[in-house]
Specification:
Distance between the termini: 49 Å
Number of helices: 11
Shape: elongated
Largest sheet: 5 strands, mixed
Helix content: 40-55%
Structural class: alpha/beta
Order of helices and strands: HHHEEHEHEHEEEHEHEHEHEEH
Number of strands: 12
Radius of gyration: 30 Å
Length: about 300
């Protein structure tokens, strides 16, 4: 299709509305523009085609023979466009909600929440995709993303889902009694001398250790390739590990891990993000459930 052969779509839409409604004023109201704008569009088309398309009849307007043929064809074309848009929107509404996040966050925070969501909303399928890489939501057609960081996230909208305060954890009693104040400098100095388990796949967490006064290269450490290996080893007494508090809150509450040191006033968080604009009904239902009904979130920022 050569778009140079087609007049302005705004002008064609204005003419179709005027011919269908029999009034420039009614067309202006329908399209939320001025009477003058509709009249200018019609005059531009008449100049383009070199013949009149509308003529006055009483207090209204009626199409000429040529105008009636054009209005009929435009009506059919716009109806097909509208049908295609409705079909696409309906397909978006009917498909599963897709969410991307890291494997560790999905396993330790998100998945324990989802049984309650599925019970409350059995009609809404949810597809969780896990990756350490940052996924392009628009290109991949993904509704929601949970990302770790301080933000902002250019080109995306969203909210803080849960804070990502860093804690050092270990099997309870493995290295003696826990400190009275895990945020104290003494607590952080103590953990520097412990055997560690470090995640080689997530350099961002190790950079946070540097900001907290620990040198990962100087630690007595066993290196594993994923947090999915580190947490079981840590629970079994294999060493200390640095974790976002959100990922180990259940372990701490159930007595599988204890806190040896804790970060103060962290700017890091897990953010629930999406592309600008309205979400599908299903995705919005999931977001609303997380904000209002989920027991995983103590507070929503």
């Amino acid at each position: 299709m050569d778009w140079r052969d087609i007049p302005s779509l705004s002008a064609l839409r204005a003419f179709e509305a005027a011919a269908r409604l029999g009034s420039l004023s009614e067309a202006a109201r329908a399209l939320n523009v001025t009477h003058a704008a509709i009249a200018a569009h019609v005059r531009a088309l008449e100049g383009e085609f070199g013949q009149p398309l509308l003529r006055r009849s009483g207090r209204g307007m009626v199409p000429t023979l040529a105008g009636a043929e054009l209005a009929r064809d435009l009506g059919s074309g716009f109806a097909e466009i509208a049908a295609g848009v409705r079909s696409l929107r309906q397909g978006r509404e009917d498909r599963p909600v897709t969410l991307t996040t890291t494997p560790s966050f999905a396993e330790n925070w998100l998945m324990p929440c989802l049984a309650a969501f599925w019970s409350a909303h059995p009609d809404i399928p949810l597809s969780v995709q896990t990756s350490q890489d940052m996924v392009d939501l628009r290109r991949e057609g993904i509704d929601l993303a949970i990302r770790h960081g301080s933000g902002p996230w250019p080109g995306l909208e969203g909210h803080v889902l849960t804070q990502a305060t860093m804690v050092v954890v270990a099997q309870p009693g493995r290295f003696g009694p826990p400190p009275d104040d895990p945020t104290s400098p003494e607590a952080w100095a103590r953990v520097a001398d412990l055997p560690w388990i470090l995640d080689t796949s997530h350099s961002e967490f190790n950079k946070r250790l540097v900001r907290l006064g620990l040198d990962p290269d100087a630690l007595q450490a066993t290196e594993l390739s994923s947090n999915g290996l580190i947490l079981p080893a840590c629970r079994a007494g294999g060493g200390a590990s640095a974790q976002p508090l959100a990922l180990v809150e259940t372990d701490i509450a159930d007595g599988r891990l204890e806190v040896l040191a804790q970060e103060v006033d962290s700017e890091m968080a897990y953010h629930l993000l999406h592309l600008p604009g309205p979400l599908s009904r299903r995705a919005q239902t999931f977001v609303t459930w997380l904000k209002r009904d989920s027991k995983c979130i103590a507070g929503w920022s």
